[in-house]
Amino acid sequence: MSKFWNEKINNITPYIAGEQPKAGQRVIKLNTNENPYPPSPKCREVLDNFDIDELRLYPDTSATAVREAVAVKDGVLPSQVFVGNGSDEVLALCWQTFFEKKSKPVLTPDIGYSFYPVYSDFYDVNIEYVPLGEGFVLNPDDYTGRECGGIAIANPNAPTSLSIGLDAIKKIASANPEKVVLIDEAYAAFKDPYETAVSLLSECPNIVVVRTLSKSYGLAGLRVGYAIASAELIEGLLRARDSFNSYPVDRLAQKIAAAAISDSSYYEECRQKVIKTRGTLKANLENLGFEVLPSSSNFLFAKPLWARAENLYKILRGKGILVRYFNKPVIGQYLRITVGTDEECGALCAAIREVKENGQNG
Description:
Number of helices: 12
CATH superfamily of the largest domain: Type I PLP-dependent aspartate aminotransferase-like (Major domain)
Strand content: 5-15%
Shape: globular
Mean pLDDT: 96
Helix content: 25-40%
Number of strands: 13
Order of helices and strands: HEHHEHEHEEHEEHEHHHEEHEEEH
CATH architecture of the largest domain: 3-Layer(aba) Sandwich
């Protein structure tokens, strides 16, 4: 609390990001869903050939190269793509653009991305939490036939790792034709088989798909995200952006992002490696006495049946292995575990086995 802060900042509860290791600290980092593999080699080519003199000039406000790369990848027009400083900024601009202040509530799952309530609080947007069903499953019928100011769904969901199909998304969007349905696809690259709500845009022009390069392209440190929607909705995002910051993505970031998105073969190679390791890790955790949800993402949501999740989280942290624990009702029994390399996941399972054999069950 501070007398110099305004009322909103004094009262708001900010988003809490996953723990970041201190400089020089060596850990196995499986707590923030980063890609375990480096960015495309084409990104290194960009760095090696970048003319530093370019940094004295403002960047392209339209991020044209990135928009064109996304358009080619997803079979849309560049005018249907909006680029921002990470998907969190894009999501924040969606809240400012599409959802009215102090009006009908935005519907969102009661267990979902914990930034959504922060955006709603910060921008004075009412929010209504729709309970997930048994096993954390989202029922599309819960989002039809009710008054709302819009809908926001992470698909796959975080932290549960579960996803819904395109038929469910279409049902929700079709039932709310006058409201924006925001589909946050931060983890969609790791669906097997892959599918995206972008394929529904021609039938459902009220859908906005938001993505990040942090997970699927190994570029969490670059801070680039984007939205795909109708040209009408994208124009709204541009108006909001240009009322706040017309230059959110710098020159170097734009070139690296465009190079990464264009390297489809490397993207697919890394995607398949993560999917394969995910399957192995899931099986190994189940053999170690975990209940593991079926994942469509690059992380697992796992409940140890022989230990308290919080206790196990702390023991692993003491061993230099970071996983994510949420001290919240219902999900406080689970750990969210990023799919790392085979070696990292092997070290995690070895540490868990040692804990279990030593009887450290909390």
